[in-house]
Write a structure and sequence with these properties.
With 151 residues, this protein is of the alpha/beta class. Helix content is 39%, strand content 14%. The protein has 6 helices and 4 strands, in the order βαβααβααβα. The protein has a 4-stranded parallel sheet, sandwiched between helices. Helix 1 packs parallel to helix 2, helix 1 packs parallel to helix 6 and helix 2 crosses helix 6. 4-nitrophenyl phosphate binds next to loops. 4-nitrophenyl phosphate (4NP) binds next to loops.
């Protein structure tokens, strides 16, 4: 059975699609499955934001296969690790958890870099392109550490 990892943000068009693409590129696809979702359904069915697509492309990643979807309670059954980008995502995910096993699957992604800091990946949606590169750099560091730990 593959180990399954879910990246979660608000809209599933900016941060978590990048996180999915970055982590997937660092793991053996025969052993791991990586997906992403949003706590809100504003953009369901859409491609990632063009700025996320461009930033991924600059780093050699194609994320255009992805389509936005909403996080559901069933994701607690499917996934082994659920990573939130910020505190708001974390709280919205935990609000759907029904037991401690589910609660313990949920982590703040940047705690891979600084354990217990609960640092947040800033939402780049309303900012400029540099915000997306900043998000990429944070996620790349966190995903490198996590991939080394579980591989
Ligand atoms: P994301 O960014 O959560 O990183 O995908 C956002 C995308 C869309 C919206 C907010 C944040 N929105 O309000 O539509």
């Amino acid at each position: 059975m593959k180990t399954k990892i879910l990246m979660v943000c608000l809209g599933n068009i900016c941060r978590s699609p990048l996180a999915e693409g970055i982590l997937a590129s660092k793991l053996d696809p025969t052993k791991f499955m990586v997906d992403s979702a949003g706590t809100a359904g504003y953009h369901v069915g859409e491609l990632p934001d063009r700025r996320s697509i461009a930033t991924a492309k600059q780093h050699g990643l194609d994320i255009t296969y992805q389509r936005s979807r909403k996080f559901t309670k069933d994701d607690f059954q499917t996934f082994d690790y659920i990573f939130a980008m910020d505190e708001s995502n974390y709280d919205n995910i935990l609000a759907l958890a029904e037991n401690n096993i589910e609660v313990e699957k949920v982590h703040m992604i940047l705690n891979q870099i600084s354990p217990n800091s609960n640092s947040e990946v800033p939402d780049p949606y309303y900012g400029g392109d540099q915000g997306f590169e900043n998000v990429y750099q944070m996620l790349n560091e966190a995903c490198t550490i996590f991939a080394q730990k579980i591989s």
